[in-house]
Specification:
Blueprint: H1 2-18, E1 31-39, E2 48-54, E3 57-63, E4 67-76, E5 80-87, E6 93-98, E7 101-103, E8 109-117, E9 122-125, E10 139-144, E11 150-151, E12 153-156, E13 162-165, E14 168-170, E15 179-180, E16 184-194, E17 197-207, E18 214-218, E19 229-236, E20 239-244, E21 268-275, E22 278-285, E23 296-303, E24 306-311, E25 335-342, E26 345-352, E27 363-370, E28 373-378, E29 402-409, E30 412-419, E31 430-437, E32 440-445, E33 450-457, E34 460-467, E35 481-485, E36 488-493, E37 517-524, E38 527-534, E39 545-552, E40 555-560, E41 584-591, E42 594-601, E43 612-619, E44 622-627, E45 651-655
Parallel strand pairs: 1-8, 10-17
Antiparallel strand pairs: 1-4, 2-3, 2-5, 5-7, 6-8, 9-12, 11-15, 13-14, 13-16, 16-17, 18-45, 19-20, 20-21, 21-22, 23-24, 24-25, 25-26, 27-28, 28-29, 29-30, 31-32, 32-33, 33-34, 35-36, 36-37, 37-38, 39-40, 40-41, 41-42, 43-44, 44-45
Length: 656
């Protein structure tokens, strides 16, 4: 029986062999190739020597460029293999960092990874986005929110001889000029050289690739009910100033007694600084002549190490700079206090008054600061003068309003000009809002239903334009808020009545009382024209969209303090109306000539009546939003947002 069986088997095998042109290869005789990818090698570096050992094979391969490689030799299935670096290219160190060894399965191996490090390269990216350049990656992507409008690169490396960024030569160790980032992706090439070697990196920046992220929740260090912390905010780089216009301490100057509650409505300002991603309070500021009801902090302006604080209800009859602070004979004449920082220490530099102070003048209602130039709005000023440097002694036009421009030389401030609207009249309230960018000044006049633009040549100011909404059949509070950035001007009209939504809708509609709107104007040469009529994506009656505005480059933020959605965080349900007066902020971005809404922003602790959007500040990649009626009794940064035991204490939220 055994013999018969063996014969049968032989016969079967013989039949199998006789079929076809060649014998079939047994599975255990299959052979496969080993390969992978090389990265990090510079152009001109020469060859990278790789060695393959295993399955009876010992082979060498020279890789001359980044990318895929494969040994021509084959290794049998089931055999072990090892890939090592046999020799490094010039000025490089290479290593197998993944899958250096293994066992061949029934397929080619293609996942051996070789990482090469050439001359040291570092690329620092501006901003606080957590972006980290990896010199081992030829192409890398950095995602940012819509706030990321530009990026500056600093290329360095001890062995480098030169660098080219985005087609232009770059100085090693020094930041490039900011490179504009439009919405979507923008690739920036970085080519570095070292001796005869060169390497090009492709850095892809994806603006809008990440959502707005709330990174801080801030409260006063002495949070108290009704203090209205966040009624105004100002931001410059890594420094943030926050006003609490109704704070009640009777302290004077810098870092006084915050626990004192003896002076109702005196007001205070808190200065915070950022280190990395962490915000801490640096100073607690009070007026040098703190007084009951002075409203210190009703306006703020910050530029570098200089901070201006308005107190529109201060009552001294002093005039000019550093006059008699103790005088209280002119109720609500108003004053401005200028503070400067040296190192980490703040001190008051000047006490500023109108050149024609009088009761109810409201000097300090609004402020704008650009370098050594300060503009101050005084909505209650009474002169019937018009234009530049008119008769300040006239008092025949109640609430006509005026703006005063001061300049600093060294540490001394002096008044440069006294400005009135060219068509000034009683109740114009010229100076309700001011914005200053270099030598351009914009002034809102809600009673005059217009905003005026002035320009400075040397020390001479002239009116360049008067802009107004084309649809003002009713009082829309046009000019209640304004923001200026280069040749773009945004004007808030929080009492606009149109029910339109989005961009350039029906401005003639009047079916949504006090819904609010924002008008965007642009300058070409010396001519200003309207570019967009901006409305919320969820327009609602009495939302007061446009109460606050902030503008930086092609990004516009708009606050609607009485919007009613109970949504939390960016991108929530806009149609929820369960939290009356909670407030919201809308983010718009200009792409080319067209504006579009890109984000709908709510805080993490939305509450009815909080008035999120009371104030706005936009600087670089940081957005700060005030909610002056928020009710938590928490103090400092990152406290308990769920607490609601201090009605009207106020809060601020920082987004990136």
């Amino acid at each position: 029986m055994r013999i018969a069986l063996l014969v049968a088997v032989v016969v079967v095998v013989a039949v199998a062999v006789s079929g076809g042109c060649a014998p079939a290869e047994r599975p255990d005789d299959a052979r496969y190739r080993i390969g992978g990818r090389v990265r990090g090698m510079w152009d001109g570096a020469g060859g990278l020597g790789l060695r393959l050992e295993g399955g009876g094979v010992e082979a060498l391969l020279t890789a001359t460029a980044n990318g895929a490689f494969r040994f021509p030799d084959e290794i049998a299935s089931g055999a072990s293999y090892t890939v090592t670096v046999a020799s490094n290219p010039a000025s490089h160190t290479c290593a197998v960092d993944e899958n250096a060894s293994g066992v061949v399965a029934a397929a080619d191996v293609a996942n051996v990874s070789i990482a090469c490090t050439g001359p040291e390269v570092a690329v620092a990216l501006s901003g606080n986005d957590g972006w980290r350049f990896d010199p081992a990656l030829d192409r890398q992507t950095f995602a940012g929110s819509i706030l990321v409008q530009d990026v500056a690169l600093t290329v360095s490396g001890a062995q480098l001889s030169g660098a080219v960024v985005d087609g232009a030569a770059a100085m090693l160790g020094r930041a490039t000029s900011p490179i504009a980032l439009p919405l979507g992706s923008r690739m920036v090439s970085v080519t570095v050289a070292s001796g005869g070697l060169s390497k090009t990196y492709e850095l892809v920046f994806d603006r809008g690739g990440s959502v707005l992220d709330q990174i801080a929740y801030g409260k006063a260090s002495n949070a108290g009910a009704g203090d209205a912390f966040g009624n105004k905010v100002a931001l410059s780089g890594d420094t943030l100033a926050v006003a609490a216009v109704a704070e009640t301490s009777g302290a004077h100057g810098v870092n006084g007694d915050q626990a004192d509650n003896s002076t109702e409505g005196a007001g205070a300002v808190y200065v915070f600084v950022r280190s990395g991603a962490t915000w801490t309070q640096q100073a607690y500021l009070k007026a040098s002549n703190t007084g009951r009801g002075d409203s210190f902090g009703c306006s703020l302006a910050l530029s570098g190490n200089t901070l201006a604080v308005g107190a529109s209800s201060e009552s001294s009859d002093a005039s000019g700079v550093n006059g008699n602070e103790a005088d209280d004979s002119a109720p609500q004449a108003g004053a401005v206090y200028v503070f400067v920082r040296t190192g980490t220490t703040w001190a008051q530099q000047a006490y500023v008054k109108a050149s024609n102070p009088h009761d109810l003048g409201k000097f300090g209602t609004s402020l704008a600061l650009s370098g050594d130039t300060l503009a101050v709005g005084s909505t209650g000023e009474r002169s019937a003068a018009r234009g530049i440097n008119g008769d300040q002694r006239d008092t025949s036009a109640v609430d006509a309003g005026a703006v005063y421009v001061f300049t600093r030389s060294g540490t001394a401030w002096t008044q440069q000009v006294y400005i009135k609207a060219s068509d000034s009249a009683a109740n114009f309230k010229f100076g309700e809002s001011v914005a200053l960018d270099g030598n351009t000044l914009a002034v809102g006049a809600v009673g005059g239903r217009a905003t005026y633009v002035f320009v400075r040549t040397a020390a001479t100011w002239t009116e360049q334009a008067r802009v107004a909404a084309p649809n003002q059949a009713a009082f829309f509070a046009f000019g209640a808020s304004i923001a200026l950035s280069g040749d773009t001007l945004a004007v808030g009209a929080p009492s606009d009545d149109s029910a339109a939504r989005g961009i350039d809708g029906d401005a003639q509609d009047a079916s949504a009382p006090e819904a609010g709107a924002v008008y965007v104007f642009v300058r070409s040469g010396t001519t200003w024209t309207q570019q967009a009529y901006v409305k919320a994506s969820n327009t609602g009656s009495e939302d007061r969209f446009g109460t606050s505005v902030a503008l930086s480059g092609d990004t516009l933020a708009v606050g609607a303090i009485d919007e009613d959605s109970a949504a939390t965080g960016p991108g929530g349900d806009q149609d929820s109306n369960a939290a009356a007066g909670a407030g919201a902020v809308y983010m718009f971005v200009r792409n080319g000539l067209s504006w579009g809404q890109r984000a709908y922003v709510k805080p993490t602790n939305t509450g009815a009546g909080d008035q999120f959007g009371s104030s706005l500040a936009l600087s670089g990649r940081t957005l700060v939003i005030g909610a002056s009626v928020e009710a938590s009794a928490a103090t400092g940064i990152g406290g308990n947002q769920a607490d609601n035991s201090a009605a009207g204490a106020g809060a601020i939220y920082v987004f990136r």
